[in-house]
Amino acid sequence: MTDTHVPFRSEVKTENTWDLSSLFRDDEEWQTGLALYEKTAERISSFQGTLGKSAESLADYLDFSKNLGILAERLGVYSSLRQSEDEGSGAARTMTGKFTMAAAKAEASSSWENPELLAIPDGDMRRFLDHPRTADYRVYLGRVLRFKPHILAEGEERITALHAEGEGSLHDVFSVLTNVDMNFGSVDTPEGKRPLTQSTWSLFMESPVRDLRRDAYSLFYGTFDAHKNTLAGLYAGSVKQDVIHARIRNFPSARAASLFPDSVSETVYDNLIASVSENLAPLHRYYSLRKKILGLDEFRHYDVYAPLVRDAAKRTTWEEAVDLVSGALEPLGGEYVETLRAGLLGRWADRYENRGKRSGAFSSGSYTGLPYILMNYRDDSIRDVFTMAHEGGHSMHSLYSAKSNPFTHYNYTIFEAEVASTFNEELLFRYLVKTAPSAMMKTWLLSRRADEILATLYRQTMFAEYEKITHELEEGGTPLTVDVLRGEYRKLLEKYFGPAMILESESDLEALRIPHFYRAFYVYKYATGISAALALAERVVQGGERERGDYFSFLKSGGSRFPIESLKIAGVDMSSPEPVEAACKTFGRLVEELETLL
After folding, report:
1. pLDDT one-digit tens code per residue, 86-132
2. Catalytic annotation, pick one of 73, 157, 391, 426
3. Known catalytic membership, residue 391
4. I need a surface site. Which of 14, 234, 326, 500 has the fewest CB within 10 A?
5. DSSP strand pairing (299-300 vs 192-195)
6. CATH topology classification for 9-165
């Protein structure tokens, strides 16, 4: 869909949109569902004081809570998808706001639940867990009981629940400041003056015109420099909030608190940083190759994303893209391919751009609804074929998880989420390289894949190392001033970019512009995810029925196991450094092949 006219939502063909009727038939039925949710949630307090009476009493509440949770998920997913169709829709935003308020009220009403569960004597709880009526809740209850050392008294839990709504305010202010209030000006391009924004920034950094990249870089970071103290204060406040939260919950550190829900050892985090740090040679070699191919005397920070190869111009319709993805995923078997294919050609996906539609792409699965996919597909970008494979991986993961588990533990963790999506991208990359019609296309694919692994493995590990440093400084009593934050980040830039890079004086301001930093100790999962995905793709492609079966056991695992355990079942041990080291070696081989081709 390359028409320059961006249609209104009402102008988009129905067959190119998702069908949300698996959640609600229409907005009117959603309103009825919201009223039912609010009415049902009023009963939450009636169960207080009953959970420890008997297994039946406990099961009665868990059944009630499960059904309320399924309804809440349907309401939340539907309203968020409707809003993503047109971010300017007042009606959709009103729906989202109403549900958010209702859900927050219900959460506050149930703040007694965990303290009451944890007050049940161990002997009684063991008997309750052996009762047939609690069978579907054993995983859920086991995870709640793990938190026993970190659960507060009922009144304290209520206070923290009420406070939770405001905990995201620092990120919200950061988002408004950087996306709305900050004016980055405009830059001269071959097509004339164009505005510099958060969205156009990445396009300008990928321009083959070096003067354009330099000017955009200077303007962009000059604007951040003007707001550096405010931005540093916001991030320092976010780190302080993480540390306070961990101390309230009796965790030894903010990182320990963040890793605890997934039962991930801090050694996994440390192994990632150590393994990547020991394998920076291929990365430095790649930057040296970039400098050479681009014909530069000096390799600057604004040269990092300049194209090494002209984008492979090839038009691929949505239907042709589905064919390519289907062919690439054949190693996963007929059921997987046909299910995904039918969904993509049917109405799982909202395919093309319309005015006001959320940018980018995502997958949104739920227990009772279809695993929907939002895209803004363009048939002149082969990148969007990879996006289709990526989001399709998420959706199939959600589908298998929901079919194979009770609601209370069907949802997989973010640690696992990126495995299924990146796995599909790796299979698509192998398929397209194998069938590439020209050397130029093959070189472009190799260059793109190298950049993807660099961004997901090396760059996210650098971010993870920065988060580790900043939180340790705060916990150790060092104030996170703008100079401290920039100084620590510059050290990491020098470490990861190596001797080929000449940094600008403002390069370390990048530390103040990354939104992910407001969700601490999250980005490391991207790096571990791609490492696991590369290992599993190799295992499945080179293996047979057993290896494929192991991978499907992982897809069906949902939240029934902790992520390290579910990935072990798939055939990769993320508690060891080997997968990360292997991923670094894969990147090194791509660099070597690019050196030969270029």
Report:
1. 988 889 989 999 999 999 999 999 989 988 999 999 999 999 999 99
2. 391
3. yes
4. 14
5. unpaired
6. Butyryl-CoA Dehydrogenase, subunit A; domain 3 (1.20.140)
